Amino acid sequence: MIYIDETAVVDKGAILGRGTKVWHYTHIMHSAEIGENCSIGQNCFIGENVKIGNNVKIQNNVSIYDGVIIEDDVFIGPSVVFTNVKFPRSNKPVNKKYLTTLICQGSSIGANSTIICGNTVGKDAFIGAGSVVTKNVSSNVLCYGNPAKEVKKIEN
């Protein structure tokens, strides 16, 4: 069973897995793929071609754009933003040439973090709240700051 709040917009063609819940005022674009048992919070935007694995929790006010891949068991805190263009300009179209951003299995991204496109957040990494991720993050590390820096290895 899938739950979609009556205020949410899920475009025709979007794929949602069994047990997924989509909350108030969220918009999921036509070619997005969301796995099973996910929770998509209030006022989120899931763009074209976004791929989200199983058991992913996305808190309120998160924007995920074309080029982002989120693997299984990931936590995305409130107001996290993913970019998809390195040098955006309003008067120069990018012609859908977006950089790929990969969030690996079991990672957690804290509230108000920004993930700059083209980077990978490794398996079971933990990104502290308010961080700006400007380069790849290794697996099993705590990372935070602006720009985010790997602080220490963590055990899972």
How would you sum up this structure, described in words?
- It is built from no helices and 22 strands.
- It is mainly beta and 156 residues long.
- It has one domain: UDP N-Acetylglucosamine Acyltransferase, domain 1 (3 Solenoid).
- It is globular, with a radius of gyration of 15 Å.
- The N and C termini lie far apart (31 Å).
Give the gist of this structure:
With 156 residues, this protein is mainly β.
What proportion strand?
25-35%
Secondary structure tally, helices: 0
Broad structural category = mainly beta
Overall tally of domains: 1
Using the alpha-carbon principal axes, give the shape: globular
Unreliable residue stretches: none
Which range best describes the helical content: under 10%, 10-25%, 25-40%, 40-55%, 55-70% or over 70%? under 10%
**What name goes with the CATH superfamily?**
Hexapeptide repeat proteins
Keywords, separated by commas or semicolons:
single chain, 156 residues, mainly beta, 0% helix
Produce the secondary structure layout.
Layout: E1 3-4, E2 9-10, E3 15-16, E4 21-22, E5 27-28, E6 33-34, E7 39-40, E8 45-46, E9 51-52, E10 57-58, E11 63-64, E12 68-70, E13 75-76, E14 81-82, E15 101-103, E16 108-109, E17 114-115, E18 120-121, E19 126-127, E20 132-133, E21 141-145, E22 148-153
